[in-house]
Amino acid sequence: MTTANAQRIQDEVAHATVPPTALHPDLNTAHVRFVGVGKTYNGQQGPVAALEGIDLAIQRGEIFGIIGRSGAGKSSLIRTINRLEQPSVGRVLIDQIDIGPFNQDRLVELRRRIGMIFQHFNLMSAKTVWQNVELPLKVAGVGKALRQRKVTELLELVGLQDKHDAYPAQLSGGQKQRVGIARALVHDPEILLCDEATSALDPETTESILVLLKDINQRLGLTVILITHEMSVIRDICDRVVVLERGRIIEQGPVWQVFGDPRHEVSKTLLAPLQHDLPQELQARLHKHPISPNAALALRLRLTGNDDRAPELSTLFSTLGGQVSLLQGGIEQIQGRTLGQLVVTVANSPHDRDTLVNRARQWAHQVEVLGYVV
Amino acid sequence: MWFERLLQGVVDTFLMVGVSSLIALVLGIPLAVILVTSSKGGIFEAPALNRALGAFVNLFRSVPFLILMVALIPFTRLIVGTTYGVWAAVVPLTIAATPFFARVAEVSLREVDHGLIEAAQAMGCRRWHIVWHVLLPEALPGIVGGFTITLVTMINSSAMAGAIGAGGLGDIAYRYGYQRFDSQIMFTVIVLLVVLVAFIQLSGDRLARVLNKR
Questions:
Q1: Sheet holding A46-58, edge to edge
Q2: Which of B118, B124, B134 faces A136 most closely, judged by CB atoms?
Q3: What is the SS3 string spanning chain A?
């Protein structure tokens, strides 16, 4: 960038009239971009807004998660990318090209560059595994020899080389989704859309499908965009995440950030299944005020991954002083960041309550006083 | 002589039912496809066409076959030149069977999971690809089942056509069994019809089962 350019940009920033692309050069390289996307349905009680004011930039090669409760607009949002859903307002750009005005021919061509997998797999029951994977090529008019090669290759990639002639009904859920993945990848797409791809699978199968998706993302450099209502899916494979609620983006950022320090109530609710509640027995013993002089102070300490503070326990104990007991805790690594929370009680410490909280802050990012335990 | 007469009746029934149901098959499937794809949310959405076609189909479906047959006599004369015999019966039989079969096939086509259509669109299928590669193959077991029902209904209708001079087993049963009180002929015809219907139903069920991979 020339100095003159930089100067111009600075001037424009000052006047705040600059298009967002000039401020964020990464928008110019975004693989998929949403600009003010909204979708309104005509429901029985008047128009219903499924999406409102969605602005997003998804980078090439990343695994991007969209999470929200059911009815939050996730399905509508992901379907605007291959225009199974037409936005009412706003634009969807793929490689900087607005797909809104595409006619049927260009749409068909676009969809061949975007693979999609589904919660209920959506395999043709009357076709064998081989025929299912072959179908996208067949309708594109690809010759038989090439079809043969691609289907063999893809079924090998997903580990179903011995199931060519099986019908979907003869497969397990995980195998069906593998067929779905093979079918989605058979045109060598640049983008893979996953619509609740693991929600109908048991935890172990989910794990194996996620490993496969991550592997494909890394090996083929594919941009993966997935929607889910399971936070664990986001934690396991996503780079960045947005939280959707009532058709709006309420929170977005790198996964570690949203996990370490969720700002919105809905994000916290979605995270709840991954966290442990305080044990009932402990809750019953908690008091707001010390009812005896030797009552222990209960603290919840959170590591949000904001910097590289190490969860070094001896430091914690010496900082707090007195008798420190660990009541509950969990630490995990997400994207190389340390996230977690500990519930501790401190008894017979030389420090008073406020000092203890301040000292605990040297160790944890967030400190919450739960009360006193007798 | 009795044997020959009965054999002729079986052949005539086969001919009437076979020809008219074959035509119903060829016309009914496209009709069913249009009815399904032109409906609201269908891949060739066209509400006006859908309503018009639906009304047309319902019109023919609501007229009892006996009345339809009589009402169609001038039309039949126009097409085959006579109102008597096997070929004259084929006209009203076809006109009754086509909307019937179209409705039955429509139900099977409508039952194809919308997710499959969405998956086909997502993989870059054009609309006729969806009809050919998704809708028809997925609905095939149901369509076969529906065709079996159509065949059985047509045997029923062809017997009625026999009563006004179409020939076939119905004609024999009516003339010898009813008008001449020959209960032996009547009984034989009943047995033949039961065997025929059972054979069609069993083969149809079997074929539908083989085709159903779900």
A1: A46-58, A32-43, A89-94, A97-98
A2: B124
A3: CCHHHHHHHHHHHHHCCCCHHHHCHHHHCCCEEEEEEEEEEEECCEEEEEEEEEEEEECCCCEEEEEECCCCCHHHHHHCCCCCCCCCEEEEEECCEECCCCCHHHHHHHHCCEEEEECCCCCCCCCCHHHHHHHHHHHCCCCHHHHHHHHHHHHHHCCCCCCCCCCHHHCCHHHHHHHHHHHHHCCCCCEEEEECCCCCCCHHHHHHHHHHHHHHHHHHCCEEEEEECCHHHHHHHCCEEEEEECCEEEEEEEHHHHHHCCCCHHHHHHHHHHCCCCCHHHHHHEECCCCCCCCEEEEEEEEECCCCCCCCHHHHHHHHCCEEEEEEEEEEEECCEEEEEEEEEEECCCCCHHHHHHHHHHHCCEEEEEEEEC
Residues of chain A positioned with their CB less than 8 A from the CB of B120: 135
Helix (H) or strand (E) holding B139: helix B136-163
Which residue of B123, B127, B132, B133 is the best one to mutate when testing the A interface, meaning the one whose CB has the most A CBs within 10 A?
A: B123
User: What pLDDT sits at residue A349?
Assistant: 87
Q: Do B122 and A139 touch (CB under 8 A)?
A: no
- Which residues of chain A have a CB within 8 Å of the CB of B118? 84, 118, 122
Looking at the partner chain, which of B116, B122, B138 has a beta carbon nearest the beta carbon of A116?
Answer: B122
Q: What is the pLDDT of residue B24?
A: 96
How far is residue A226 CA from its own chain's centroid? 7
**Residues B158, B170: Cα–Cα separation, whole Å:** 7
- Over residues B61-101, the pLDDT tens digits come to 899 998 999 899 999 999 988 888 889 999 999 999 999 99
Determine whether the interchain pair B124/A111 forms a contact, defined as Cβ–Cβ distance below 8 Å: yes
Residues 6+ apart with CB under 8 A from B71: B63
Interface test with B, best of A107, A131, A135 (most B CBs within 10 A): A135
Mean pLDDT (whole number) for A30-35: 95
Contacts of B113 in chain A (CB under 8 A): 120, 122
ipTM: 0.89
What digits encode the pLDDT tens for the residues A204-259? 999 999 999 999 999 999 999 999 998 899 999 999 999 999 999 999 999 999 98
pLDDT score of A273 more than 90: no
Spell A42-79 as b/e; 16+ CB within 10 A means b: eeeeeeebbbbebebbbbeebbbbbbbeeebbbbbbbb
Specify burial of residue A125 (Cβ count, 10 A radius: 0-12, 13-18, 19+): middle
Closest CA to A31 of A224, A217, A188: A224
Is residue B206 helix, strand or coil?
helix
Mean pLDDT, to the nearest integer, of A317-331? 88
Mean pLDDT of chain A: 89
pTM for this prediction: 0.87
